[in-house]
Specification:
This protein has 236 residues and is an alpha+beta fold. 40% of the residues lie in helices and 25% in strands. The chain contains nine helices and eight strands. It is flat, with a radius of gyration of 48 Å. 11% of the residues are buried.
């Protein structure tokens, strides 16, 4: 019994000593204290922890992420150009460009494709063979109807009876041929044509006053002055 009591007493004493001198709280406190000390880097400059800066009242500025500025987009006004035309002949367009050059204005002649009023095509449906088409052609020409064989395309071996710019004339011819026992077809044909225009970038056009523009345009017959978006004038 005596040994049991002595053993318990020794165990209690050992526990008391451990708690007093080897406590985990003290050990962790020591680690934190050491970590909060200034650390010297390779260059010899001391590095302070964020907690030290806050406790010392030092100013701490946050770093704002500044987005990269996007490239400025050209406005519609920057892309506007002036068009003068259409010129009936290249020589007249070149003369106009020379006039602008005398005013230190840079310009350029361009050929553009524009839609015009549709045409009206009168024709007969294709025959089964080239020989049948030629036979039909001879028959029509013997009756005084101007015509020719369509050589290729979707209407190959058909008979063309003419292209008309005026629909009333086309319909009158259609009626005349119908009276002779044929069944012609009239179709609308979209047409395009090329026109010569002089192009000036907005910066060049602004060099000319309104009064001077009026004189330049009035000196040429049927010329027009327009503004349009011309994004592809980088060559000027």
């Amino acid at each position: 019994m005596r040994w049991i009591v002595l053993s318990l007493l020794v165990a209690n004493i050992a526990a008391f000593v451990y708690m007093q001198f080897f406590s985990p709280e003290e050990s962790s406190a020591g680690i934190v204290a050491n970590a909060q000390e200034s650390v010297t880097n390779d260059s010899g400059q001391s590095v302070q922890l964020l907690s030290e800066l806050k406790s010392s009242g030092a100013d701490i500025q946050s770093i704002a992420v500044v987005p990269k500025s996007s490239p400025s987009k050209k406005t519609v006004n920057d892309l506007l150009c002036t068009l003068v035309g259409p010129f009936p002949k290249l020589l007249r367009a070149e003369y106009f460009v020379e006039q602008l050059e005398s005013l230190s204005v840079v310009s350029e002649i361009r050929s553009i494709v524009v839609s015009s009023e549709p045409g009206f095509w009168l024709h007969l449906t294709p025959e089964k063979s080239r020989r049948d088409a030629l036979r039909r052609l001879s028959e029509l020409q013997a009756r005084g109807i101007d015509s020719y064989v369509i050589p290729d395309g979707n209407l190959a071996n058909g008979i063309s009876l003419g292209m008309f710019s005026n629909k009333e004339r086309a319909e009158a011819m259609e009626k005349r041929i119908e009276e002779q026992g044929y069944k012609p077809q009239l179709i609308d044909v979209p047409r395009e044509q090329k026109e010569l225009w002089v192009f000036l970038p907005r910066a060049e056009s602004s060099k000319i006053s309104d009064e001077k523009w009026l004189k330049l345009i009035s000196a040429e017959d049927l010329l027009q002055k327009r503004q349009n978006v011309c994004a592809d004038l980088a060559s000027l």
